[in-house]
Amino acid sequence: METTAKTPKVSLHTLYDTYNSNIRALDFYKEELQYLEMRLGTIVSANTGQDVLSQAEHFQNLFLITGNNMAELRGRVGKTLQHVEEVIKLKPTHADEKTVNDLGIYSRDLHDIENRFSAMKLEFNTFLAKYL
């Protein structure tokens, strides 16, 4: 006998708030990344040694990849947020299964970005401490 787990009923307004929260979190990390890039520029302009430049290039690449990952996730979340807004206008009830499942995927992806961002920031701060 096959059993299937039912997707819990979730209010569209709750989903809307959660998706908006994810967007705000990604915007925060984008601003934080811009700050880290500025700090990297400060170090590079004050230290022209090969060791510093090599590590700076590593961080520059890491920042670029992280920024691209955040932008890609923000695009996916934003697209789903627009879908939720459209559905709310038509029939403000509970979300469909796909929208609820997407939230789980996006939440996991955001959590992964947050964890990688924290590790990257710790590594970068260690680098900064050596050269400031």
List keywords for this structure.
132 residues, mainly alpha, Methane Monooxygenase Hydroxylase, Chain G, domain 1, 84% helix
Q: Can you give a write-up of this model?
A:
This protein has a single domain (12-131), classed as Methane Monooxygenase Hydroxylase, Chain G, domain 1, CATH 1.20.58. With 132 residues, it is mainly alpha-helical. It contains three helices and no strands.
- What's the number of structural domains? 1
For the secondary structure, the number of strands is 0
User: What top-tier CATH class fits best?
Assistant: Mainly Alpha
The helix content, as a percent range, equals over 70%
How much of the polypeptide forms β-strand, as a percent range? under 5%
Rg result: 20 Å
How is this fold's topology laid out?
Blueprint: H1 12-46, H2 50-90, H3 97-131
Helix pairs in contact: 1-2, 1-3, 2-3
Explain briefly what this protein structure is.
The protein is mainly α. 84% of the residues lie in helices and 0% in strands. The chain has a single domain, classed as Up-down Bundle (Methane Monooxygenase Hydroxylase, Chain G, domain 1).
